[in-house]
Amino acid sequence: MTRPGGEDFSVSQGDTSNEVVLRGALTIRTVTQAKAAFDGFNPETLARINLSSVTRLDTAGAWAIVRLQNRFSEAQKPLELTGTTDKVASLLHTVAQTMPSPEKAPQSPFSFAQWLDGIGQKVFAGAMFLRALTGYLGIFLHRIGRAVRHPSEFRFTSLVHHCDEVGFKAVPIVALMAFLIGVVLAFQGSTQLRQFGAEVFVVDLIAISVLRELGILLTSIIVAGRTASAFTAAIGSMKMREEIDAMRTLGLDPAMILFVPRILALLVMLPILGLIANVAGLFGGGLMAWIDLGISPAMFMTRLVEGTSVDHVFVGLVKAPVFALIIGVVGCHAGMQVESNAESLGRMTSNAVVTAIFAVIVADAVFSIFFARIGI
Amino acid sequence: MTEREVIIRLRGIRNQFGSQVVHEDLDLDVYRGEILGVVGGSGTGKSVLLRTIAGLQKPAAGSVDVLGTDVLTADEDTRQALENRWGVMFQDGALFSSLTVRENVEVPMRAIEGLDPEIRSELADLKISMVGLQYLAGDKYPSELSGGMRKRAGLARALALDPDIVFLDEPTAGLDPIGASAFDQLIRGLSHSLGLTVFLVTHDLDTLHATCDRIAVLAERKVLVTGSMKDMLKVEHPWVHEYFHGPRARAAASEGSAEPGEKGN
Ligand SMILES: Nc1ncnc2c1ncn2[C@@H]1O[C@H](COP(=O)(O)OP(=O)(O)OP(=O)(O)O)[C@@H](O)[C@H]1O
Ligand SMILES: [Mg+2]
After folding, report:
1. Which amino acids bring their CB within 6 angstroms of ligand 1?
2. pTM of the model
3. Where are the membrane-spanning stretches (chain A) (predicted)?
4. Which domain holds residue A31?
5. Which residues does chain A have with pLDDT short of 70?
6. What is the ipTM of this complex?
7. To test ligand 1's pocket by mutation, which of B16, B23, B48, B56 has the most ligand atoms within 8 angstroms of CB?
8. CATH no. for residue A78?
9. A99 and B109 in contact by Cβ < 8 A?
10. Ligand 2 geometric centre to CA of B203 (Å)
């Protein structure tokens, strides 16, 4: 019952000059060959095809024959098929009935205008994306206002849960990251500053860079990677299974239930995480300064308190709520863009992370310029 | 009438999940060219039976013979050759979501050596049109199709290599009555013109009436009875009796019996 390994197909001249005989298996395995042969047939000289020696015919073979017949009919020279069994005739009939008529969308060739159009559309899409994000921020603020007026609608349990998820559980990774950054700064700084005999300034170096920039920026980047993706995945999978639509029909507000606790949790927890990162960074730097440069902890503390203005801490931490809003809004927005297939969930999740990290860095740059201008 | 060729032969099948025995000592024959409808209550193991025959689930005991080959003991190459000779349409189509419908239908054809890509794409279009989808549906992604269209696309993919057997798991579930009866006719028509053997799992009594040559009832962990619709009406077993004499069955029967009756006269 196994299928013959090599299926053969051949075309030969029939009894009369206007007849050809097809032999062997005319199936999907031989159709490429058959079509090439059929393309060579001329409507002027051929009138009949004998199928009596065809051992096997499948839809692919039937397709090739029907295609040939159609070509001949267009040339006003109908092609006659002989030697067809009932089964073959019925198959040919089915295929002829369902032969698709290609209506391919015309593909215009590449042009300058098209290229320009492409760029324009991308810019427009970018602008629309920013608008959508602003819209989500607006929704969030509106729902916060609503929660203040109607505290019963606010889900406090959910807020606590998300604070735990985005804040408490991120403490180890954030602290470790900041500690290592402090170590690296102290180490690199000391090697450079030692050349000038200015080792003691390593304390200022660590303090300023950690407190002002790195502590909060790197914390935000880690949180963006962890949390924006988690928001997108959680909201997106609900969107995918139409749970969000179900919520709406049940009179529940997805923004209130899903967005508010998540973004609010980030708003609360990101400054705290930033503070933890600052402490861990200073600790790492101090430790390294002690080991590498012999700056004792007491000296480090004195130098830190005397030489570093509290402004730096303020400048660093004031960014935290903004970064939190960016991460939360981007994550929730991306989640709501998920369509009904699993692929878009994956795509939007990675989009959310990239967008959130990028936006955080852009915002940090804007802050830097701003603070430099007002001279803090 | 000549002795009919048995194309699927199940003997002594036993399937179990943990301590739950789904099939016990189950025998079933499917003949070439017929449309066999498999019915049974929810959870009686219809889908599991289909998966067993299609080699997706290994039974704990028993033998599965398809097209004269023992599926369970066959080596890789034989199995591969066999898999090209059956097509499975899963309950929700199970189309690859990253491919368009046309590319989905082309997937099985890619295994054919020396098949010209252009021909392959046109053959895919033919299959798409055969199952009653519009030409432009070929460019769409599965997520852009309705449930009924996905089922048709799933059928087109199952038919891609002109299989001898197709397995259909509840092909008409979730379709509107017009769509469902169009699907019934489609299956009948294709089975007739392509000489297909169809193993069809269904809950739809109209489908049973309209398409199936023979019905197998799954109950009490085995195939309880097989036979034509007429035979089913005579079975004494309470579940079978309830199934084929319930209010829905009577409604379906009064519609379905009109056509064969006319033909008979
Ligand atoms: N992978 C699995 N693991 C454990 N149990 C399973 C598994 N697949 C099926 N079952 C069990 O086998 C039984 C039969 O399932 P099956 O899906 O075949 O039912 P069915 O007859 O197709 O029902 P329906 O008509 O609802 O589709 C069920 O009780 C189910 O719980
Ligand atoms: Mg099932």
Report:
1. B 17, 22, 40, 42-48
2. 0.68
3. 123-145, 166-187, 214-235, 256-276, 282-301, 313-336, 348-372
4. 9-98
5. 1-6, 103-109
6. 0.78
7. B48
8. 3.30.750.24
9. no
10. 10
